[in-house]
């Protein structure tokens, strides 16, 4: 509610609608007798002290009649909206319940009805069902239904492709149950938002029909009927149309503004209450590493509510080096990558004491210069290659776009480079593949195509965020080999994010182990097996099965759970799960560096 009142539109809309609702309840009690009292001495009068907005053809007070008509007008509009909404949702949902052919017929019928002028449709229905309030309500309900049906159908189609719907279908959940349990609850919000605006449209439509003599009939009266009655006197006493006309306008405006405010408030509900707060991060005093393609110090990401998924993470990546970032799900690996790539979702805040990419201090750049540097210097490869490639564009077109946009290449040059880059990531027949769409490629080919896309420029840093998680083991190997080759040949640096410590150990040169948003150990990958010291790193290595593992015994697991990013203790975050915990662990151990090896643990550093 507070969100609704925050914007001028919301405030005006809510006030108008609230006032109308109060009037609808109290007006007939307060002004009911004034509205019906016939006064032959005051017929068709203009504005006067006794009758502020004049009288009608029977001398009844027009202001009182307008106020009293609020109840019937709103009641009929609500009824018409209810009919339109219910009929629309059923019509819109039918195509997903009926066999395909019948479903298409319903969609075609809805399309035709949407194209038909709504008021004409309402009038036609009203004539068929009988003139009067009932016919008008049915008419407006029928006129509203196609828009609701189209909206429901579009929203249903948008969630129909979701994995949870596919899973429900696989489980042979009946269609009507899929619809009511899995589809409708997920599209309810936009439908409800549309309701307030539809109410405004219904109110205007009903008033128009009553004004034309096709709606409410005497002796009943709504605002449209009052306008109809007053219209005969408008040339003699113009003030007689003011009250109903103003009422219709204000009510229509109120519901429309309220609908808009609802939509705006709903869009903002994804923002948690409050602002994110970053800790104080003074500029790093130590000299910058001149060779590093990436140097970040104290990188921190904060969300509102004290959620800090990345806490003072420091990483350096040098040319030709692959640095692995490993840790359990939720340890902040992807958020670290997002912070480096400047793609932390709103309302997250990113801070650091140093942030250098390709030798340039990112904090000294304007947002435009920063975007340009990231666009040319950084390539990102995500876990799901399907969502990284646009399904509507051919692979070659997408690759070429990078070269034409960032390097100003001509179409022919960009195409030649796309073929060359696809060849470089070992995609066979690249001339053929550039003409294919992403869905025509296998998962491994798609991921290699994404790497090739990253190589269309000349990236100095490649961030690969779990690039092989969605691939099977053999394809995974191919993709990792390609990544290694690319780094070796181009002397770019790479940050390789994975939860698989075995893969990281094999592919990377150095490894940073993250736990609860912090780096708890950093060491050369070659030393992982023999020299990892932090109990968490040791536990990760210990939970890996190998050929010597006893298959009859359960695999080693790490007891307990990693703390949530909003609930990290002030001491060592791993203490609850650690066998070496002592009283000292109530204070957080700092990352202590000894040559190439750094570890944050009181007991082993
Ligand atoms: N938009 C967001 N708002 C608030 N918190 C978020 C948001 N996105 C992620 N987080 C929090 O950040 C934490 C770290 O997420 P992140 O994706 O970096 O983990 P991860 O280590 O990459 O895990 P995974 O291996 O599962 O991808 C999560 O526990 C999550 O609670």
From TrEMBL:
It is a multi-pass membrane protein; Peripheral membrane protein. Coiled coil: none annotated. Keywords: ATP-binding, Cell membrane, Membrane, Nucleotide-binding, Transmembrane, Transmembrane helix, Transport. InterPro entries: AAA+_ATPase, ABC_Ni/Peptide_Import, ABC_transporter-like_ATP-bd, ABC_transporter-like_CS, MetI-like, MetI-like_sf, Oligopep_ABC_C, P-loop_NTPase. It is found in: Cell membrane; Membrane. Residues 294-541 form the ABC transporter domain. The chain crosses the membrane at residues 12-31, 72-94, 106-131, 191-214, 234-258. Pfam families: ABC_tran, BPD_transp_1, oligo_HPY. SMART domains: AAA. It comes from the Bacteria. Its main location: membrane. SUPFAM superfamilies: MetI-like, P-loop containing nucleoside triphosphate hydrolases. Residues 70-259 form the ABC transmembrane type-1 domain. Belongs to the binding-protein-dependent transport system permease family. Belongs to the ABC transporter superfamily. This is Dipeptide/oligopeptide/nickel ABC transporter permease/ATP-binding protein. It comes from Streptantibioticus parmotrematis. The lineage of its organism: Bacteria, Bacillati, Actinomycetota, Actinomycetes, Kitasatosporales.
């Amino acid at each position: 509610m507070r969100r609704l009142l925050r914007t001028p539109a919301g405030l005006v809309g809510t006030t108008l609608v609230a006032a109308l609702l109060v009037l609808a309840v109290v007006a007939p009690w307060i002004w009911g007798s004034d509205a019906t009292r016939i006064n032959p001495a005051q017929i068709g009068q203009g504005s006067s002290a006794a009758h502020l907005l004049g009288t009608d053809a029977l001398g009844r007070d027009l202001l009182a009649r307008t106020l009293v008509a609020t109840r019937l007008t709103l009641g009929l509009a609500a009824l018409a909206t209810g009919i339109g909404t219910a009929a629309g949702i059923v019509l819109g949902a039918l195509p997903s319940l009926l066999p395909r052919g019948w479903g298409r017929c319903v969609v075609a019928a809805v399309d035709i009805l949407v194209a038909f002028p709504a008021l004409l449709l309402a009038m036609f229905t009203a004539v068929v069902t009988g003139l009067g309030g009932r016919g008008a309500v049915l008419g407006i309900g029928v006129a509203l239904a196609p828009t609701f049906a189209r909206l429901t159908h579009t929203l249903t189609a948008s969630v129909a492709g979701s994995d949870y719907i596919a899973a429900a279908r696989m489980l042979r959940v009946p269609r009507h149950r899929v619809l009511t349990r899995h589809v409708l609850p997920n599209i309810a919000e936009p439908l409800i938002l549309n309701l307030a605006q539809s109410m405004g449209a219904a109110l205007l439509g009903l008033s128009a029909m009553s004004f034309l003599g096709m709606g409410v009939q005497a002796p009943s009266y709504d605002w449209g009927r009052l306008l109809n009655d007053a219209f005969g006197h408008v040339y003699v006493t113009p003030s007689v149309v003011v009250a109903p006309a103003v009422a219709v306008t204000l009510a229509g405006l109120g519901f429309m503004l309220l609908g808009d405010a609802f939509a705006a408030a709903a869009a903002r509900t994804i923002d948690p209450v409050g602002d994110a707060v970053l800790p104080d991060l003074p500029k790093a005093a130590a000299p910058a590493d001149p060779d590093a393609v990436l140097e970040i110090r104290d990188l921190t990401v904060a969300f509102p509510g004290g959620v800090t998924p990345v806490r003072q993470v420091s990483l350096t990546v040098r040319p030709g080096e692959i640095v692995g970032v490993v840790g359990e799900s939720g340890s902040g690996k992807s958020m670290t990558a997002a912070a480096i790539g400047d793609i932390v979702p709103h309302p997250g805040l990113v801070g650091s004491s140093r942030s250098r990419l390709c030798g340039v201090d990112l904090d000294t750049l304007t947002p435009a210069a920063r975007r340009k540097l990231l666009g040319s210097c950084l390539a990102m490869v995500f876990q799901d290659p399907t969502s990284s490639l646009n399904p509507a564009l051919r692979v070659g077109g997408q690759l070429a776009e990078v070269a034409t946009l960032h390097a100003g290449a001509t179409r022919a040059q960009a195409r030649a480079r796309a073929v060359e880059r696809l060849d470089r990531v070992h995609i066979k027949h690249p001339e053929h593949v550039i003409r294919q769409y992403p869905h025509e490629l296998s998962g491994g080919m798609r991921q290699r195509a994404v790497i090739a896309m990253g190589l269309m420029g000349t990236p100095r840093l490649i961030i690969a965020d779990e690039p092989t998680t969605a691939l099977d083991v053999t394809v995974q190997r191919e993709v990792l080999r390609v990544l290694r080759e690319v780094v070796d040949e181009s002397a770019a640096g790479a940050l390789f994010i994975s939860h698989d410590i075995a893969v990281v150990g094999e592919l990377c040169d150095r490894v940073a182990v993250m736990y609860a948003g912090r780096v708890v150990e950093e060491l050369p990958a070659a030393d992982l097996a023999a020299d990892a010291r932090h109990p968490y790193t040791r536990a990760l290595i210990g939970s890996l099965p190998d050929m010597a593992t006893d298959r009859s015994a359960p695999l080693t697991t790490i007891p307990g759970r990693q703390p949530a990013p909003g609930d990290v203790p002030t001491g060592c975050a791993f203490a609850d799960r650690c066998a070496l915990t002592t009283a000292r662990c109530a204070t957080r151990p700092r990352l202590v560096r000894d040559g190439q090896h750094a570890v944050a643990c009181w007991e082993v550093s």
